[in-house]
Design a protein that fits this description.
- There is one protein chain.
- The protein is an alpha/beta fold.
- Helices cover about 40% and strands about 10% of the residues.
Length: about 450
């Protein structure tokens, strides 16, 4: 019997345990052995794989330590900031502000948050930005991987590396890919979510293969990150496989309903989109209750605070409003499937849960929250889901137009089926009934067995 293909998996523990455990089960079934990289004292193995001898944790010094760590951090945060100062990212005001804060903090500025506004307002002309980008990239390319990390990975005897990447700002992806190149290990990057390539760090180290959700992300990988198109595959979103299962299960369970009264579900977004979204929500509720159309005015309102907390964490409305709060401390596909299937319309500012709602066949509507939600219009990926740009979310300039759109939806004047089809192509381009996890696992294993590359020379530190 041939030896199992040994794959070193690197990612944040949160990404692994909550979003892609199904891929790992498929890999094990196909004959892989999985080594989950972790900093000392952490255990990123998904619960479903605990106790399986073919899936184990290996402690690696992934985070840089020592005298050069601060200098490397500053270089990478300046690189992150520079990305959003260029003309191609004029709409990325939120990312510009966030990366400015991080860069100034790394440089030791005494009041980085206050100073970030001025820095984030800067723009670099295309020629200047191009020269600066190449200079920063050249500095990054000349930086060797941490010797201790390279030695530790080499000792594992891995056949390949799977990087589950969020394109994290200032993250460790660059060092992991440097080690893969230095050791001649094939490296596959699985992009974690739909906004990562457009709103986070530039990946200026090249994996051998990149797995993304859809053709829009293929274009992003090529146009924004410079990956060769032939190395990027649009296989779909494995993180939605369980949600599809829960949708099927919930659809098979009759709902009690609420008579003729319509239900509007408000899905909260992360603090990166809106730090104090409860304030926006309460203003939205007031507009709904003041609507001229009784279908909107008298609708049952359900709000699901963002599971990660943020501005929702300590929110306890006083006095309690005319709405129902459905709290969740973590991502729960079954609970979300029940909520969206019980709704007649779904409202959100900018969140992946809009995709779940559309996949359930529910109309999704947004409204512009302005300066209170800098991560809404200030994010490039917000435009991706809007119907006027080929997406499925019905947009509204303000709350007055939003209430009118809600009335249209609740009266049945909007057919959600074409919009749902757009969402389906976004997460399952190979077919709505075809789970993505087996496709991703097969691709990862094929690339892992494709053979070692010629090791690169590690520059002197």
């Amino acid at each position: 019997m041939p030896a199992p293909t040994r794959i070193l998996v690197t990612a944040s523990p949160w990404s692994l345990t909550r979003f892609v455990p199904t891929v790992f089960g498929e890999l094990l079934a196909l004959g892989a052995e999985l080594l989950f990289a972790a900093e000392p004292g952490t255990d990123p193995v998904p619960d479903e794989l605990a106790g399986d001898s073919r899936a184990r944790v290996v402690e690696l010094p992934i985070v840089r330590r020592g005298a050069e760590a601060d200098a490397v951090k500053l270089l990478r945060r300046l690189t992150d900031l520079n990305r959003f100062l260029g003309p191609d990212h004029a709409a990325s005001s939120w990312a510009r502000r966030r990366t400015a804060v991080r860069a100034l903090a790394a440089a030791g500025h005494p009041d980085a948050r206050a100073a970030a506004a001025g820095l984030a307002a800067a723009r670099l002309p295309a020629p200047v930005h191009g020269v600066l980008t190449e200079s920063l990239n050249e500095l990054e390319r000349s930086l060797p991987p941490p010797p201790a990390l390279a030695a530790a990975v080499e000792a594992l005897g891995a056949d390949s590396i799977l990087l589950v990447s969020r394109c994290s700002l200032g993250g460790t992806e660059r060092d992991v890919l440097k080690v893969a190149r230095a050791l001649g290990l094939p490296a596959t990057m699985l992009v974690w979510s739909w906004d990562n390539l457009s709103s986070k760090a530039l990946i200026n180290e090249r994996p051998d293969h990149v797995l993304v959700w859809n053709e829009r992300q293929v274009d992003e990988a090529v146009d924004l990150h410079g990956f060769p198109r032939e190395r990027v595959e649009a296989l779909g979103a494995p993180s939605f496989d369980r949600y599809f299962e829960e949708l099927a299960r919930e659809r098979a369970t009759p709902s009690a309903g609420d008579g003729d009264r319509r239900t509007i579900l408000y899905l909260g977004s992360s603090k990166n989109v809106c730090k104090q979204e409860p304030d926006v929500f309460l203003r939205w509720v007031a507009a709904v209750r003041a609507a001229a159309d009784p279908l909107v005015r008298d609708a049952r309102v359900v709000v699901r605070p963002y599971p990660g907390g943020g501005g929702w964490r300590r929110w306890r409305p006083d006095p309690p409003g005319d709405f129902t709060i459905e709290r969740s401390r973590k991502q729960q596909p079954a609970e979300l499937a029940r909520l969206v299937l019980d709704a007649d319309a779904v409202v959100a500012l900018n969140t992946s849960a809009e995709l779940e709602a559309a996949l359930a066949g529910r109309p999704v509507i947004t409204f512009r929250a302005g300066e209170e939600a800098p991560g809404q219009e200030g994010s490039v990926h917000f435009e991706y889901l809007l119907a006027q740009h080929g997406g499925f979310v019905l947009d509204s300039r303000d709350l007055d137009e939003h209430v009118e759109n809600l009335a249209r939806v609740l009266r049945g004047d909007v057919d959600p089926r074409p919009l749902a089809a757009v969402a389906e192509r976004f997460v399952r381009p190979a077919g709505i009934d075809r789970p993505v996890s087996p496709l991703v696992a097969a691709a990862v294993l094929e690339h892992a067995r494709g053979g070692a590359r010629t090791p690169a020379t590690i520059a002197a530190g």
